[in-house]
Write a structure and sequence with these properties.
Number of helices: 13
Strand order of the largest sheet: 3-2-1-4-5
Helix content: 40-55%
Radius of gyration: 33 Å
Largest sheet: 5 strands, mixed
Distance between the termini: 80 Å
Number of strands: 5
Order of helices and strands: HHHHHEEEHEEHHHHHHH
Strand content: 5-15%
């Protein structure tokens, strides 16, 4: 019977033989418990060290003490615009009023001066006019029929029952959607800037009406994006007391959002259809596992964060994480040349891709057997979708990262931090439709307010609603 290292030899020799098995069992139990606690402590410490560079956490959650990017070498140039940079002059508008200012007398001799300068120096001053609501009052009179005595009342035009015109309704939607303002703040801003008396309840009603006005454009955009190569992502979105999810799909000139109850395959198919014909760029979540490798691109930005996490854990998987991070840097350097036009996509696929893919696959297999539990699990998970890591090299219009969807969801995340989601399905419909309008108009350089006014007017008059699908798409 071997003496445990934690028990001195003199104590072990003095212990009766019949008590030694029990003591060994106690020591083994305590050692197992200590090992489990050490593993738990290491796991909690690794969780505390998570930040935006080694996990899916947003940058806003980073602690103040997180180390910043290393300082760059000084370039030796002065601060500010450099010689040859593109000028950014103030925009010159058509003036509403022109004031000619000329000198009365010569500054040197005092002689009177007269005449006009053919090329005067122009200084424009921009000012906002005092805004007051344009109020139209409909007075519905009664008239009595001389023959039957009936007294019908005049009928107000369509939209008069709302109490607010299309532009006022669209402005409230812009403040609530793009400005991420709450109902009370929208009411204060409308009253302070435009002199429009309105209450939070009326704001809520106008949001519901705006959501109805945007329904045709949202449905059309949703149907159109299902046929395009799209970046797809999701974030949590509480609805009432239940946890929901806000899904986003981004493509050229189009961004579509949808609030769903879950984040599984059913929610993905409600957004992109049962079998999307084009490539879907996403993270490695299981909701996309049914997609074939040739129609799926796994996000390399997320991979880099996972490789950084392997490095930061400083265990047996550190070397694997360091090598994988290095190879991902090689990939992005090579891809930047493809984007700049210095290297063709075909050259990248035939020369750089084969050896890079071979090296990354070998490193992932080495990581599976590295002895670090989390690193091995991550490498095993990545190997399951390894074929989807390289789809971008052959599919036109596909990028290796899902950054477009993550950036589009950033506004929704900021909104969620202040509003804590929505209280009802009606509120969720407004959020998903106004976010779709904001993102799509931004991508197409369209004026959001003008689009919303057009949509509201079409809804009230029964006309053709405007489209968010880019022209010619």
């Amino acid at each position: 019977m071997t003496r445990p290292a934690c028990i001195p030899a003199e104590y072990w020799d003095a212990l009766p033989a019949e008590l030694r098995p029990g003591l060994l069992a106690i020591v083994a139990a305590f050692e197992a418990r200590i090992a489990a606690q050490d593993a738990r402590i290491a796991e909690l410490e690794a969780r505390l060290d998570q930040n935006s560079s080694n996990s899916s956490r947003p940058p806003s959650s980073d602690p103040p003490h997180l180390k910043s990017a290393p300082p760059r070498e000084p370039s030796g140039r002065r601060r500010g615009g450099q010689p040859g940079h593109r000028r950014n002059d103030r925009i010159r508008l058509e003036p509403d009023e022109v004031v000619d200012v000329g000198p009365d007398r010569c500054r040197r001799r005092g002689e009177g001066l007269a005449g006009d300068d053919r090329d005067p120096l122009v200084r424009q001053v921009f000012e906002l006019p005092v805004v007051r609501p344009h109020v139209v009052e409909y007075r519905l009179h009664r008239s009595t029929c001389p023959r039957c005595g009936e007294s019908p009342r005049g009928v107000a035009p369509v939209g008069a029952e709302v109490g607010y015109g299309p532009r006022a309704q669209a402005a409230c939607a812009v403040l609530a959607g793009e400005g991420r303002m709450g109902k009370r703040l929208v009411a204060r801003v409308m009253r302070g800037l435009f002199g429009l008396p309105i209450g939070p309840a009326a704001i809520c009603d106008l949001e519901r009406r705006t959501a109805d006005a945007l329904a045709p454009a949202h449905a059309e955009a949703l149907g159109h994006i299902r046929g395009l190569p799209a970046n797809v992502d999701k974030t949590s979105w509480p609805q009432g007391r239940r946890r929901g999810w806000l899904w986003a799909a981004l493509a050229n000139g189009l961004g579509v959002f949808r609030v769903a109850a879950g984040r599984g395959r059913d929610a993905f198919e409600a957004l992109m259809g049962r079998s999307p014909p084009a490539v879907v760029t996403s993270d490695r979540y299981s909701a996309y596992a049914h997609l074939p490798a040739e129609r799926r691109q796994a996000c390399w930005a997320r991979l880099r964060r996972d490789f950084q996490a392997m490095l930061d854990r400083a265990d047996a998987g550190k070397a694997t994480g360091e090598e994988l991070l290095l190879h991902s840097g090689v990939l992005f350097d090579a891809w930047s040349k493809v984007r700049a036009g210095a290297v063709s996509r075909g050259t990248f696929a035939s020369r750089t891709l084969p050896w890079l893919r071979r090296e990354v696959r070998a490193l992932l297999r080495r990581g599976v057997g590295c002895g670090a539990k989390k690193t091995a699990a991550t490498c095993r998970e990545i190997l399951k979708v390894e074929a989807s890591l390289w789809t971008f090299a052959k599919a036109e219009g596909v990028e290796p990262t899902n950054n477009a969807a993550e950036r589009a969801l950033r506004q929704a995340v900021c909104r969620r931090k202040t509003s804590f989601g929505t209280d009802s399905p009606a509120g969720s419909r407004f959020v998903e439709r106004i976010l779709t309008a904001i993102e799509s108009c931004c991508r197409q350089s369209r004026d959001l307010l003008d689009f919303l006014v057009e949509a509201v007017e079409a809804r009230r008059s029964g006309g053709k609603p405007p489209s968010l699908v880019p022209a010619g798409a």
